[in-house]
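Lab manual, section 2.4: Encoding a predicted structure.

Procedure: take the sequence of the chain (202 residues), apply the prediction step described in section 2.3, and record the output as structure tokens. A sample record is shown.
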Amino acid sequence: MPVDVNVSEPWESGDPRAVLVSAQLIDSEHPELAAEFEYLCISAEGQLFPRAVRVGPAPELPLGRTIPVTAGMLRDLPLARWESAARSHTQASLQAWEQNGLVDGLGRLTLRALRDLKPEQLVEVIEPGLRESTRKADVRRYYSLLHQCSVAIEYTKLRMEGVKDPAARMARNHDVQPATVRSWLHRARKSGILPSNQGDAE
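Recorded output:
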């Protein structure tokens, strides 16, 4: 079954060693449902500790076709099999990214990834195979991530060039207000593309 793996920003505890990693899957035997497993990764070896599980309607399912998720339904779902698939895909993704030098041992995007990759390549690192999906929800997410990656790459390069206020420079480059750029950067940090603790001017 397809599994989408996403690395989020550092855990809200403020512990720089910890990041949240989530894996969402849709089982062909239950196409009306999406299951998301959230893990806390707190070691350079990529150990995963379960933190949350969510089961709800599949993202692309029309509102009129959604079904209520009841306690009785949850008892009958193959949650153990789903969790095993989510865990194995998450571990494989983290290991592959680290071997490529695109993420560190905690699954966070490295400076190399933000410096050397094109936006579409960075999206592929974050969510492999998303570009090929024809699901409406995936298409929307792909273009949202593509914009966030473009913003993150431009911002990172300006910082590396020593620009004191990258957000202001980007606002001038794109003919938008600085507040608009700050909102772009906020979304990129929320998605885990940019680190959340850079301490810059914006």
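Check your result against the sample. Strands lie at 3-10, 19-25, 33-41, 48-57.
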